[in-house]
């Protein structure tokens, strides 16, 4: 993937300067943090999309296939998949529709709950998610853009942010990257 030509200035730093100049000093750092997170997400997703392009998968389809491939039986109830992926059930339904049309998953009746439907990965789905994982590991995850010590710091900060936002609650168990210092 070719990298775009860098700008001669940091546009987020310039936006911060403008915020301060307009009298919004108290929220300028927050604006810069949120804008930086959004931009970082765009950069990462462009890399992910490029790595997944040969497989024909989107990241949401990849995530569902990976989740199913990691499950003991290769199948999960739709509601459980939605909860684990932290997306609305409608999004999982749409993703399953596309994966099912491509014969990468199938819907099967739940063996003990007539109201529930299981999503089951097919052999073709297992093969494709394995190939996609190789691409992501080599082209994205192996080189996330930060040195290992800085990456660990980023993981700590993001886990702290997510935990404070109610994204997860491990109870008394210490989460891997949450330091307990707030």
Can you offer a commentary on this structure?
Helices cover 59% and strands 7% of the residues. The chain is built from 7 helices and 3 strands; from the N terminus they run αααβααββαα. It has a 3-stranded antiparallel sheet. A hairpin with a 7-residue loop joins β2 and β3. 14% of the residues are buried.
Sheet of most strands: 3 strands, antiparallel
Q: How much is the radius of gyration in Å?
A: 20 Å
Helix/strand class: mainly alpha
Helix and strand sequence: HHHEHHEEHH
Report how far apart the termini are.
38 Å
Spatial strand order of the main sheet: 1-3-2
Number of beta-strand segments: 3
Strand-residue fraction?
5-15%
Count of helices? 7
Low-pLDDT parts are: none
Notable traits:
182 residues, mainly alpha, 3 strands
Summarize the structure in short.
The chain is mostly helical and 182 residues long. Helices cover 59% and strands 7% of the residues.
Task: Summarize the SSE layout with pairings.
Blueprint (H helix, E strand, L loop, with lengths): L10 H11 L3 H28 L6 H12 L4 E3 H8 L3 H13 L3 E5 L7 E5 L1 H19 L6 H17 L18
Antiparallel strand pairs: 1-3, 2-3
